[in-house]
Design goal:
Elements lengths: L2 H16 L5 E2 L3 E6 L4 E3 L15 E5 L2 E5 L8 E4 L2 E4 L8 E8 L5 E11 L10 E7 L4 E4 L2 H10 L2 E6 L2 E3 L6 E4 L7 E11 L2 E13 L9 E4 L4 E4 L5 E11 L7 E5 L2 E2 L6 E9 L5 E10 L11 E6 L4 E10 L4 H32 L6 H4 L7 E5 L6 H22 L4 E3 L10 H10 L3 E7 L17 H13 L4 E7 L12 H9 L3 E2 L13 H9 L15
Parallel strand pairs: 1-9, 2-9, 10-16, 18-25, 26-27, 26-28, 28-29, 29-30
Antiparallel strand pairs: 3-7, 4-5, 4-8, 6-7, 8-9, 11-14, 12-13, 12-15, 15-16, 17-19, 19-23, 20-21, 20-24, 22-23, 24-25
Helix pairs in contact: 3-9, 6-7
């Protein structure tokens, strides 16, 4: 063969090598294995590897033709065509293994498997698990991991089950039934014992059973907004709250959101939306909240339809919201101020004219209470009769015997009992005072202030006027049977009421005395301020008109 012909053959040969089509690369598979165990691998694309000629396959480690995998069955790592055997794994066996299939028709395919071998001391590493089994049911079936189950099926091996490294007796199927997943959660290991070339090997796969919280889907409920309108001020920022409640612990199956004029929300100038989903304790209700923030409310926003919507696992819900201009607060404030002013005015007016109003309406009020009162007199008059100077004594006598009866009896229809006028001569004085005191509905006490021995009024022996005081005070203070009307006659002086007896001071503390305006014009008029106050304290309905008695 000449030189030119040889060169032509070499060029054509090199050209044919470079023009071969590239190989098809299949998805890489990865496995985490345990030291001392064995592993049988067949690429996932092959359903029955025995039908494919062994000669088509060549195996390499780490994509290097230098580390060619032997087909000798005596080797710890070897292949039978497309099947790869790892017998009694060592940590140094970790790496990437490649199978190249050269089909007679000229096609080429690459299959990859990555193997990571963990040492025996690291057998509790979670990376060795074939995933988790999440369960919320009472009963659960645990399947043996596919690589282990496939090995047992090919080599007709035996299954053994372990729970948390403890042997489960009598369990020799490729699956395991857990009757109470809530109590039996843990790591379940399926071990296949198989034979190859008259030698026994073990392959295992572990899976963790965990109890998943029960998920309770229900119709979604919108809790905010509850109104169709929300007040806003133009030019002022506002936040719209869309809150929904879904089932128990539904997670991502509950998500609220806003849409504007029927279109899903998209960020733009002046608008922003934040969404937060939380699980409420202890009810486990899932609550999703979407907050739409409007930086400044514009006139256009009052014409915009905002929709709060949510889609749950089984249902959906929505509600619309529109903005309205907030009404001015000035009319509301003015109205409330007017009501407050009216209430204050009515209270002041009532306090100032309570006496006049009471006296005005008395004739129109029912007198049922009086009909049950059989006492003869409306008031018993008590006044001082000793230790008075001549002028004071005359003035007091005129007031008691003339002024008081002329107004209360003649003009107002009341019946008064006045000692010296209404007592019956010849009867026992002490019995008479006690009897007529009990027949009276009020006790009118006339305080004659400014006299020299006013403080000794209740300390003296029972003489004319003195016993009246003692009996009257007993009924008013001890038995509390009678209401007391105090009339101040004269000026108390700089000491005020300090020089009076303790019993009188106690009465004054309960009821302020009504001062007799002796020098005032119109003091004797029955509708003067003084007499109105006296009439206000007198019974509402006078006693029956007494028989005329002779005046003293």
């Amino acid at each position: 063969m000449d030189t030119s012909r040889l060169l032509l053959i070499l060029v054509l040969s090199e050209y044919s090598e470079t023009t071969k089509p590239p190989c098809d690369d299949y998805k890489k598979e990865s496995f985490n294995l345990l030291e001392g165990e064995s592993f049988y691998f067949v690429p996932y694309v092959f359903y029955d590897i025995s039908t494919i000629p062994h000669e088509e396959f060549t195996w390499y480690k780490n994509n290097s033709k230098v580390e060619l995998i032997s087909s000798d069955e005596k080797d710890r790592i070897h292949h039978h065509g497309g099947a790869l055997f790892f017998l009694n794994l060592h940590p140094e066996d970790s790496g990437l293994y490649t199978a190249r299939q050269m089909i007679q028709s000229g096609g080429c395919s690459n299959y990859y498997v990555k193997v990571t071998v963990f040492r025996t001391s690291d057998k509790n590493n979670s990376k060795l698990l074939y995933g988790q089994i999440k369960n919320s049911d009472v009963n659960k079936w645990i399947q043996c991991p596919d690589p282990v189950k496939k090995t047992c099926n090919v080599f007709k091996g035996n299954f053994t089950w372990y729970k948390n490294l403890t042997l489960l007796h009598g369990k020799h199927e490729n699956y395991l039934r857990v009757k109470n997943a809530k109590e039996d959660k843990g790591i379940y290991t399926c071990v296949c014992t198989w034979t190859h070339n008259n030698k026994v090997y073990n392959s295992s796969g572990s899976r963790m059973l965990i109890m998943r919280k029960p998920v309770g889907h229900r119709e979604v409920e919108i809790v905010s907004p509850i109104n169709k309108e929300q007040s806003a001020d133009e030019g002022v920022g506002i936040k719209l709250n869309c809150s929904v409640v879904c089932g128990a612990d539904v997670g991502n199956d509950c998500k609220a959101g806003w849409s504007i004029n029927g279109k899903p929300f998209s960020p733009k100038d002046g608008y922003s939306q934040t969404i937060e989903t939380v699980t409420e304790k202890p009810s486990l209700k899932t609550i999703s909240t979407a907050i739409l923030a409007i930086e400044k409310v514009s006139a256009q926003d009052f014409q915009t339809e905002f929709k709060c919507s949510v889609e749950g696992f089984y249902s959906a819900n929505s509600t619309t919201l529109s903005l309205k201009r907030r009404e001015s607060i000035i009319p509301l404030v003015v109205g409330k101020l007017c009501v407050l002013f009216f209430c204050v005015f009515a209270a002041v007016l009532g306090k100032c004219f309570i006496i006049d109003l009471t006296l005005f309406f008395r004739p129109y009020l029912p007198g049922s209470k009086h009909t049950k009162d059989t006492r003869m007199y409306d008031a018993y008059v008590v006044y001082q009769t000793q230790n008075l100077d001549k002028i004071t004594e005359d003035r007091l006598c005129w007031f008691v015997t003339n002024t008081l009866p002329s107004v209360l009896e003649e003009k107002c229809g009341y019946r008064l009992f006045i000692q010296g006028r209404d007592d019956i001569p010849g009867e026992d004085y002490l019995e008479q005072v006690e009897h007529w005191m009990q027949q009276s509905r009020r006790l009118i006490v006339i305080l004659t202030l400014g006299s020299e021995s006013q403080a000794d009024i209740t300390e003296k022996t029972p003489v004319m006027g003195g016993f009246d005081w003692q009996v009257g005070f007993h009924h008013a203070l001890v038995q509390t049977e009678m209401k007391v009307i105090l009339i101040q006659f004269g000026d108390p002086g700089p000491q005020g009421y300090a020089n009076l007896s303790p019993s009188l001071q106690h009465l004054i503390h309960k009821s302020v005395p009504i001062k007799w305006p002796e020098s005032s014009r119109g003091a004797t008029a029955w509708n003067s301020r003084f007499w109105k106050r006296v009439r206000y304290l007198m019974p509402a309905t006078p006693a029956m008109k007494r028989q005329q008695s002779s005046n003293i």
